[in-house]
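Section 5.1 Outputs to date
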Amino acid sequence: MTDALYRQSDFTIILISLFSLVAMGHLLYGFCRLCFLRLRIKEQPYYGVTIIGSALSLIAVLLIFTLMQAMGIVTQTHKMVVTEVESLYKVKSSCLLVSSEDCKTITNALDHYVRSILSSDWPKPPDHDTQSSYESLVVCLRDLIRKHASDTVVRQNLLVTMDSMIKARHERMLNTGKEIPKAFFGATFCLLTSFVIFFYFLAPQNGFSQLVLAFLLSFIGTLLGLVIVYDHPYDGDSGITQAEFLPTLQALLKN
């Protein structure tokens, strides 16, 4: 079900979150009316405004803070992917310091790796389809480093190139699957449940109050939808995809 949700467009995810929250809130409101219909609770405008406003502010601050964190993760992930592509260009440029035979060896290994990237879902994890060709490229660079052990300049250049490529891929893979903990969504659900119950007891029980409740829940649902969208940096309309880096990757295949 979660995978099906993330295959939707960003706007669709936000709408699903919005309408789900409004529906849940009004179902809970109706349940409260059934359970506490016989209770005659006097309205308390002061406490109603204070408690409902405080609860709404708490939920909004929590969601906005989490949204900022999720957007930061997307930006960080994008930089990691850019760094990884740049490291491949360093591998390509390393051919300038070696013989034509060694250059051909590097180019063949790099081409194989890039083609495996283009035929996979890279950079979306787990990225198993590119692992074999990636390891072959690392072995190729390692063998050339051993071959040029006496040439300090070439050896150092190849070491830096291999190190930057390994580091860039490793950092992106470490960032794989880091999502907002499920406990956050559980806590948000508990806060929203408390908010609706407070609203039932402290706000006037009429149609206008239910309309206001719907507007407040739609506001919270929009924020929650944005959190869900940015929680997965490789999915959705705003996700990081291969298409953004396609021209750059294809350029690596040109001699």
